[in-house]
TrEMBL record:
Subunit structure: Homotetramer.
Pfam families in alphabetical order: NDK (PF00334)
Origin: domain of life: Bacteria
Keyword Cell wall biogenesis/degradation: no
Keyword line: ATP-binding, Cytoplasm, Kinase, Magnesium, Metal-binding, Nucleotide metabolism, Nucleotide-binding, Phosphoprotein, Transferase
Family, per entry: Belongs to the NDK family.
Gene3D superfamilies: Nucleoside diphosphate kinase-like domain
Requisite cofactors: Mg(2+)
Name the record gives this protein: Nucleoside diphosphate kinase
EC number: 2.7.4.6
PROSITE patterns recorded: NDPK, NDPK_LIKE
Annotated transmembrane regions: none
Binding site for ATP: K9, F57, R85, T91, R102, N112
């Protein structure tokens, strides 16, 4: 069964939306198999989003992700990576389909409530970035 790394971003934890977002995952058939709340340092957020470091929004993205606590989680299910991205909706909430997390909860293209891995290789790396083998059962 496939696994993917999900982050509930600071705009959502601040508004106490963790439970509502988790309900969307569970309703879609994704199982939350690991979960913890962290306050990332700017160095940690910068490292996590290193792939975007040449993009114009990188500095803003790193500051945002380190601004308040996040909830990091591992979601499991058939086709979990694609299914999670479907439930999240488009990066920009203005383009997100009805019923998706970003349509319902995101504030802007930057403060868009959730992150999800985009491919099997990045899912593996991102899960290992946040979770040890002991935390994954
Ligand atoms: P994520 O990787 O967070 O799941 P994504 O894959 O839909 O989102 P990416 O293109 O990987 O989108 O961008 C990573 C994150 O950077 C976005 O989720 C968003 O928070 C931020 N971002 C993307 N584009 C912009 C933009 N034009 N302005 C500000 N922030 C942006
Ligand atoms: Mg991405």
């Amino acid at each position: 069964v496939e696994r993917t790394l999900s982050i509930i971003k600071p705009d959502a934890t601040r508004r106490n939306l963790t439970g509502k977002i988790n309900a969307k995952f569970e309703e879609a058939g994704l199982r939350i198999v690991a979960q913890k709340r962290l306050h990332l340092s700017t160095a940690q957020a910068g490292k996590f989003y290193e792939v975007h470091k040449e993009r114009p929004f990188y500095g803003e993205l790193v500051e945002f992700m380190a601004s308040e606590p996040v909830v990091v989680q591992v979601l499991e299910g058939e086709g979990a990576i694609a299914k999670n991205r479907e439930v999240m909706g488009a990066t920009n909430p203005a383009n997100a389909d009805a019923g998706t997390i970003r349509k319902e909860f995101a504030l802007s293209v930057g403060e868009n409530s959730v992150h999800g891995s985009d491919a099997p290789e990045t899912a593996k790396e991102e899960i290992a970035f946040f979770f040890s083998g002991l935390e994954l059962v």
